[in-house]
Records
---
Amino acid sequence: MCLAVPGKIVSITPGEGLERSGRVSFGGVIKEVNLAFVPEAQVGDYVMVHVGFALSRVDEREAEQIFAYLAELEAQEPAGDAVSAELPPRYSGE
Amino acid sequence: MRFIHEYRDARAARRLAAAIARTTTCPWTIMEVCGGQTHTIVKFGVDELLPPQITLVHGPGCPVCVTPLELIDKAVEIASIPGVIFCSFGDMLRVPGTHGDLLAARARGADVRVVYSPLDALAVARAHPRRQVVFFAVGFETTAPANALAVVQAQRQGVRNFSLLVAHVLVPPAMEAILASPGNRVQGFLAAGHVCTVMGYEEYRPLAARYGVPIVVTGFEPLDILQGVYMCVRQLEEGRAEVENQYVRSVRPQGNRAARELIAQVFCVVPRRWRGIGEIPKSGLGLQPAYADFDAERRFGLAGRGVEESTECRSGLVLQGVLKPPQCPAFGTRCTPEHPLGATMVSSEGACAAYYRYRRVPAQGAL
């Protein structure tokens, strides 16, 4: 219900205030999305889209923080740690 | 897809899981509030990566699941009025009411339509000026800005045949109801990332302080959830109870100002009954007096009616994290997605549906 999917703004449709909208690409699937709540978002930005509305601009710098965090964790790992242990079979990148 | 796949990296997931295991010294129970997070956890086996001392319990964060029976009944009643076009998100159609669901109403001839957005329902109203078009406004704070904007547009465009059946619910009062209940086991929360995208997370600080629980605003991909758990466990182990933000790529401390202003313009806080839990004060949104003309309950004379709920479905206990779905005697036998007793088995985000889909243990006697 609170599902929101990141997509890239490919164009902004003329329109002001509550009518502001644009075309957003979700891995190649293009949808018209209301952009009233992200007045700062521009073409090329990624936005989180829920029921046809962009709710936030994805902060691309902040999106990297988890990987910096992971690098810190790697530095803390004891030698020979169980990070290579088996994963549950259901776990995949799909 | 960018901002999805990089957060599903198995090696990184193992690294986070190992860090959680190194940090954990005693048992902790953590609740993920949002049904979307529950599904990620069960689908990707995130809980199976965690050390045995960490228990994840599933929260009430599925608006479909907590919509009270009386509102489903009102939806069916309104949809059955000749000439009405009833628009809804798809996941509400199979939620059982006292006498069937919206899908059954459609089978009897009601004009029930599935829409992706409230603006689609508004477009239906503009296209059919002689018919009453009603949109079933369910959802948490995440969905409220979209519904608020549809109402404001309807008013500006003079669309008089459009109204909302409002069933909006708010997350923090439900979290407080869980913390205040005598049987509470929850020691830390993963707060709902998209609710906080709209609302920010300042309102969680008093909750964290009053009940001494860490609250970590968390995203929806496997790595988000593992990092959220790690941050929560670190707080628990260090004896801290603070509000932290894991989901920084989408959530700002104050949320989305434009969206919050529109919610406040159109909606006001009201008491709301939650399915399986009961009435929680100040836990819902209703239309402001200035927009009362768009209230379907008033328009169709259904305000102030209530009904009692069935007793066989234990979803109230599931929604409060007291019971795991397979512990319900009806799970997978008398209650399945095809023949649900309650909304937690219907909704694509319900905890019972998640367990049925990804964790089904064959019933005794099954081949």
---
Amino acid sequence: MTVKKLSPEELLGLNKFAVDEAEPHIVLDKAICAKCAEKPCLVVCPAVLYSLKDNEMNFDYAGCLECGTCRVVCKNKGIIKWNYPRGPFGVAFRCG
Amino acid sequence: MSDDEKFDAIIIGAGPAGAACAYLLAKAGKSVILIERGSTAGEKNVTGGRLYTYALELVEPGLYQQAPLQRKVIREQIVMMSQHSAMTMDYVDYDFGAEVPQSFTVLRATFDEWFAAQAEEQGAMLAIGILVEDLIEERGRIIGVRAGDDEIYANVVIAADGVNSFIAQKAGLRGDITADSVGVCAKEVIELPPEVIEARFNLAADEGVARVMSGGTDGVPGGAFLYTNKDSISLGVVVNPVEAAQQGKKVQEMLQDLKMHPVVYPFIKEGTTVEYGAHLVSELGINAMPKKLYRDGLLLIGDAAGFVINTGTMVRGIDLAIVSGVAAARAVLANEGSTNVGTAYLKELEDLALLPTMRLYAKWHDIVGNPRMAATYPNMMNEMIKNMFFVDGKLPKRIDKAMLSIVRKHVSIGQLAADGWKGFRAI
Ligand SMILES: Cc1cc2nc3c(=O)[nH]c(=O)nc-3n(C[C@H](O)[C@H](O)[C@H](O)COP(=O)(O)OP(=O)(O)OC[C@H]3O[C@@H](n4cnc5c(N)ncnc54)[C@H](O)[C@@H]3O)c2cc1C
Ligand code: SF4
Ligand code: SF4
């Protein structure tokens, strides 16, 4: 292998996740997001889990690295719930 | 867990802060439960990073020798990067590695798991896979925690739950963390054979490098780091999330560009990325610390208390986490059953030089957070160095005039003087 630029999907594919299918740990209110002009979450999420589809905010909590960045930049409070996943779900780093 | 179980201490979070505190309390014979949301201690944690050894020595002399540490750091490098060039300051000191080496590179998943296991060996109960959701309060005193349907009680609760401390918030000791007080880090761990790492960085088998870079972040205030582990390299960027968002620069892409930078790529080429992580780091030092670090029945330690120092050339948080864990354990042991644990904890933080050190670096953010540190000054420095070495046979410009014109191109002299003065005052 040689080092190259990797896409967000390739990067997340390297990690181990135990997704809590029953309970999302981050929940958005898409109506609030629709009115949010800046949408910083699109830029700062290191896992690139926020995206726009037909002007609608799309979010998938499955690849979340649990960093908390989206929570701290979301001024318009479109994130109506941000918790850590229930133990022991979520990402599991083998190096850290 | 039965409803009426009562411990001497509940510690929330098995990072270095929590593990250090649990270790010492358990060693003194106290009943301690160390609660961690991950299915192992360490699997949720990401750092740069390196560990300053003195902190582990404070817990137990010689403990570091058993710890799964990576390489002892004998080289410190500061890199000023511009787009195609870089100026590197390389300080090597083999005495850093003598007797008790001053610092080691570290991977947290293995280190934290080991450290929590040491606390367990001392008699602490490690409860993994449990997310503490709330505190239990009685007449103004914190008396326990709630996790799912379980309630657990203790004489004292210690919050060691990290930078994004919900527990400190629930206790009313701090508000929501604000975006301007943190940096967001994206990091890759890139595997390479040990011999390749040693050859590329000029190291013996157990030696390592800590390299901090300014200017590798596409003009967004922040910086980058590279640490050599035994058979991998930790490479990451840390940037201000507000600035990144305003400039529309994706954190993940900055890291991808950094990998391809001509002064980074040769060190990591032929490597294999094995992990991608992200984490927040507290950036404002003492300025972002909660006003109060305790209340009746509860102490904040480690990142939950805001104990991180970032000087731009060095990040300290793991050692401070451990030291604060030690301080909390000592305070609890000396003041059992009394309401003075909080003030005793503050006194220990003073005696162990933690708070005085935080105070000393109070203004450093003025330098580290200066937006010109992310591009203007690294670019200027690179151009000046280039001018010194560039030869094409024509008559060179007089060196003073050449330098002055380079400086003028990047900043106004007034700006330079102001930044210099601010920097001087911060030190
Ligand atoms: C990019 C980066 C580079 C850094 N570089 C360095 C460096 O080189 N050297 C250095 O010394 N420091 C460095 N730091 C800082 C250092 O990593 C932190 O200061 C340190 O990890 C703090 O330790 P802690 O034990 O307080 O918290 P953490 O290590 O964050 O541990 C908190 C623990 O609590 C658990 N937890 C959280 N909430 C709950 C809950 N409700 N219930 C149960 N468990 C919970 C978490 O899973 C976690 O295990 C760096 C940080 C970053 C992000
Ligand atoms: S916590 Fe971090 S990784 Fe998860 S969605 Fe938010 S920004 Fe992305
Ligand atoms: S920043 Fe918050 S409110 Fe705005 S789009 Fe993102 S999640 Fe929605």
